[in-house]
Design goal:
The protein has about 300 residues and is of the alpha/beta class. It is built from 10 helices and 12 strands. It has helices at about 10-20, 35-45, 80-85, 95-110, 125-135, 145-160, 195, 200-220, 225-240, 280-300, and strands at about 5, 30, 60, 70-75, 115-120, 140-145, 170-175, 180-190, 190-195, 245-255, 260-265, 270-275. The strands form 3 sheets. The protein has a 6-stranded parallel beta sheet with strand order 3-2-1-4-5-6. Strands 7-8-9 form a 3-stranded antiparallel beta sheet. A 3-stranded antiparallel beta sheet has the order 10-11-12. Keywords: Oxidoreductase.
């Protein structure tokens, strides 16, 4: 029995719940949100889908005690409008740091012992707070982080070369925010190094395009939801399948002393390993600068 809770049922959380429901990822869903009317409405809408859905999924709402035997929690609380308006994911810092403390305590009080996958922004900071407040081991609490930024990079590079984005490997690293960057040393297209295919001007332009698209989508829709929800569901699948999936998450990286976007191996226990990348000096400096930004912001909460 695969039981998943979604905390926060705005556009992102609702899309996560719908994707889990329609793709047969979960056998049981728990929906939680401060807005009880919204929570109940999403519960009712999903239940009305059962007779037409390809999978039977049990859906509950509003009961935090349900977390005691839940396998995976996906947190998606926040105010995305603040991020879209400012173009800065740290715009949600004041509200979501408080939300993370409140939600973390409720999760701990429930007796939850599973894996938490965080989406809420600023992703790396919120993930760190959730780990601290729940008291769970660091490997059991991680975030979508630069999994989404990497997907955007893959799309842009794929379009540049007329390739399926899945033919593009490599990582975006750092904060899921303004200081994230494409680690071009890791990027390959059909096993050809990106450094052999693109000059510096082209790489700079692709960096810009991958970052700008998030805010183009956000300003047009008022939010983003599909891409990040897909990332969260992919990671939940990796946990349930014990897939040993290798990809970027917001995980705790010992060498920089904080949660940050970095490749990890995800299995049934969450982040089971954080392999060390051999980065060139300029990319290592960018990673450390991004980590310092995150740690400085976390220090404001002490």
């Amino acid at each position: 029995m695969r039981k998943v809770a979604v905390i926060g049922l705005g556009h992102v959380g609702a899309t996560v719940a719908f994707t889990l429901f329609t793709h047969g990822v979960a056998d049981e869903l728990v929906l939680l949100d401060k807005n009880e009317d919204k929570c109940r409405a999403e519960w009712g809408d999903l239940r009305d889908t059962l007779a037409r859905n390809d999978f039977y999924v049990k859906v509950n709402w509003g009961d935090w005690s349900e977390l005691a035997d839940t396998d995976v929690i996906i947190t998606a609380f926040g105010d995305v409008a603040a991020t879209i308006k400012t173009g800065d994911r740290f715009a949600e810092f004041p509200i979501n740091t408080k939300n993370a403390v409140e939600v973390g305590k409720k999760i701990k009080d429930s007796g939850f012992k599973g894996v938490i996958i965080n989406i809420s922004n600023p992703c790396d900071v919120v993930t760190s707070i959730l780990q601290k407040e729940t008291g769970l081991p660091k490997n059991q609490v991680f975030g979508t982080g630069t999994f989404l930024d990497t997907s955007r990079m893959q799309r842009v590079v794929g379009e540049k070369l007329g390739q399926d984005p899945s033919n593009v490997s490599g990582f975006n690293l750092g904060e899921h925010g303004s200081s994230q960057f494409t680690a071009w040393s890791t990027v390959r297209i059909n096993n050809r190094p990106a450094t052999d295919l693109f000059n510096e001007e082209e790489k700079t332009e692709m960096d810009r395009l991958s970052k700008d698209n998030a805010f183009m989508v956000g300003k047009g829709k008022g939010y983003t939801c599909y891409a990040v929800a897909t990332c969260a569901v992919r990671l939940a699948r990796a946990v349930f399948a014990d897939a040993k999936f290798y990809g970027p998450t917001s995980c705790y990286v010992e060498s920089v002393g904080t949660y940050i976007g970095y490749p990890s191996i995800v299995g049934k226990h969450g982040v089971e390993e954080v392999p060390v990348l051999d980065l060139p000096a300029d990319e290592q400096a960018k990673l450390e600068a991004s980590a310092n930004k995150l740690k400085e912001n976390l220090a404001k909460l002490d």
